[in-house]
Every structure is written in structure tokens, then in C-alpha cells.
Amino acid sequence: MFITFMVALLTCCTGRDEGQVTGSDQAKQAVFEQLDLEIDSRHGFHVSPLLRLGADLDGFGKAGDPVWEVRRTDVHNGMAIDGLFWVNGANGRVRRLHPISVESHDR
């Protein structure tokens, strides 16, 4: 169901977009700063290529905005994904997709 939601919401883009967040390192930095996440030896962060937002999302962005997907993995648990975030390349806003709440997010 979640994958269906993401496929419906996003379409892949092929060109390079100019925006506030123009690289994978900037996307990771936006997640660290806006969500107050710490870097430690247990977690790795991986960034996917730019996607395009398929629909307007209040407080995040509008259809067509470039979006970076940042995944936080637990390297001691078989690289399981324990955090998933979108970073809007046009405005720098971050949206937490998993876990939904900070309370369920171990640091």
C-alpha cells in the first residue's frame, strides 16, 4: 500500500533541477538540521536521485517540485530501513515518512 502511494505520488525525472537543495550531501544535511538527527556508527544515510512530486502536499511542496529521498539504515540490523524522509529540492523543506512520529524514532 505504501509503495502504491509513493508510485502514485511521484514520477521520476531525468534532468537536473536547480533549487535550494541541489545535491545529495545537502539533502542529508537538511534532514539532520530540520529533524535534529545525529550521525552515529549504527546508522547510514543513503540518498536516491531526484524525483518529481506528483501532487501538491500542504506545507511541503507543489506538484512538479524536485524531491530527494533520504533513507536511514541500521547497519547492525542487516541494513534495515528505519527512517525515510523526503527533501524538497525547490524549497529545502523536509517531510518525515517513516517513522511517522518522533516518539517511535530511536536515536
Could you characterize the architecture of this molecule?
With 107 residues, the chain is an alpha+beta fold. The protein is 19% helix and 32% strand. It has 2 helices and 6 strands; from the N terminus they run H-E-H-E-E-E-E-E. The protein has helices at residues 2-9, 24-35, and strands at residues 10-12, 43-47, 51-53, 66-74, 80-88, 94-98. Strands 1, 2, 3, 4, 5 and 6 form a 6-stranded antiparallel β-sheet that branches. A hairpin with a 5-residue loop joins strand 4 and strand 5. The longest helix has 12 residues, at 24-35. The N and C termini lie far apart (27 Å). The model is unreliable at 1-18 and 103-107 (pLDDT under 50).
Descriptors:
single chain; 107 residues; alpha+beta; 19% helix; elongated; disordered N terminus; disordered C terminus
Strand and helix map with partners:
Layout: H1 2-9, E1 10-12, H2 24-35, E2 43-47, E3 51-53, E4 66-74, E5 80-88, E6 94-98
Short description:
Helices cover 19% and strands 32% of the residues.
Biggest sheet layout? 6 strands, antiparallel
Proportion of residues in β-strands = 25-35%
Mean pLDDT rating: 78
Number of β-strand runs = 6
Q: Any idea what the radius of gyration is?
A: 13 Å
Helix content range: 10-25%
From N to C, what is the helix and strand string? Answer: HEHEEEEE
- Report, as a whole number of angstroms, the end-to-end distance: 27 Å
* Quaternary: single chain
Number of helical elements: 2
Structural class estimated from helices and strands: alpha+beta
Overall body shape = elongated
Low-confidence stretches: 1-18, 103-107
